[in-house]
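User: quick one, fold this
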Amino acid sequence: MSAPSSSRAPPPRAHSLGGHLRAAGIFLVVTLLLAGFAYPLLVTGIAQLIDPGAANGSLLYYSNGTLAGSSLIAQNTDAPYLFWSRPSLTDYNLTLGAESPPGPSDPQLQALFNETIAYMQKYGIMTVNATVPFWYAAPSASSIDPDLVPEAVLVQIPRVANATNLSIADLQGFVNSHIVNPAVPYLGVPFVNVLELDLALLPLIGR
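Assistant:
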């Protein structure tokens, strides 16, 4: 007597190609939703609650409400009545990538110094026998660093005083009041944000 034949269908294969494709597709969609939408929205929302100014780009404005720029980005100016930022290898253009600035033994550094010194002589720093700080004569790694060490700002005071109605003593006190010390002592150096300094200077000189 023969055994009865089974009418049940064979079980599906555990590792079918269709199953793998469906799982990969679901994983891709979930990852895109989490990493591309949920996470950025969460981080942006937290940043807006903690520090909305920084979250929106650390924007700075003139007294009339016109946008002046960002405190994170240096501005290009040669106005004698304003303080100047560090030189830039990209002319302060955010769309251009800057190569690493030349090191102390690179011959290009001397050429850069000569160009910067000629630029300062053209517009005049009005300081006799002044030692120009490295931060004022050489670009930063990003070429858009908005900060200068205090010495690089103080050396510009005679030029600014000559172009404004403010005395050297007044400008020294003004600059000193805008020096920012590192949050943790000995980790970093004091600095001055040049754009913030210039925006605070404009009302004092009637501009």
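User: anything notable?
Assistant: The two ends are 111 Å apart (CA to CA).
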